[in-house]
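Why should sequence recovery work at all? Because a backbone constrains its sequence more than one might expect. Tight turns favour small or flexible residues, buried strands favour hydrophobic ones, and helices have their own preferences. The token representation captures these environments compactly. In the example below, the structure is given first.
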């Protein structure tokens, strides 16, 4: 890899570190190509990405970034899992690590906060952006449906009283 290619990789990694909601660093020594393809497919499905980069270039890209404190995890054979959604990459990494013992999560970063192994696990258990939006919409819609039910209830009560009277009269 020549100097121009290295500079391009450093620039790409810098953009990843700045724009990602969460970055998870893991060791992947011993994973097969099929395992890595499976990890990449899971990440793609969750709108996350997986990137293998040289640790030295990643450390250069981290200089001056808010998540610079995660450089301590960049040793050995590392892979980066990242996403704009602050939860998606952590969930993908955690799920993959549960099924594959050779994938060892070291830590990561969420914005300016460095995450250790337990921090990544805690983030993975949080609801995703879509789940939060769905619950908010549900909370907003619930009062409206309650109001509609309350408004409709007297009419249905009157109708049932009238039908009861009609049955007694017949």
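From this structural description, the recovered sequence reads:
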């Amino acid at each position: 890899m020549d100097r121009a290619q290295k500079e391009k990789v450093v620039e790409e990694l810098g953009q990843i570190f700045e724009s990602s909601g969460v970055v998870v660093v893991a060791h992947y020594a011993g994973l097969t190509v099929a395992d890595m393809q499976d990890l990449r497919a899971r990440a793609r499905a969750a709108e996350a990405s997986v990137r293998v980069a040289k640790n030295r270039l990643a450390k250069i890209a981290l200089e001056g970034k808010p998540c610079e404190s995660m450089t301590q995890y960049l040793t050995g054979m590392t892979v980066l899992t990242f996403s704009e959604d602050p939860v998606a990459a952590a969930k993908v990494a955690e799920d993959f690590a549960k099924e594959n013992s050779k994938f060892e999560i070291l830590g990561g970063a969420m914005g300016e906060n460095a995450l250790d192994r337990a921090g990544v696990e805690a983030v993975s258990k949080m609801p995703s952006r879509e789940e939060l939006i769905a619950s908010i919409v549900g909370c907003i819609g619930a009062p409206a449906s309650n109001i509609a039910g309350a408004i409709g209830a007297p009419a249905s009560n009157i109708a049932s009283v009238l039908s009861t009277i009609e049955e007694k009269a017949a």
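A few observations help interpret the result. The chain is about 60% helix and 15% strand.
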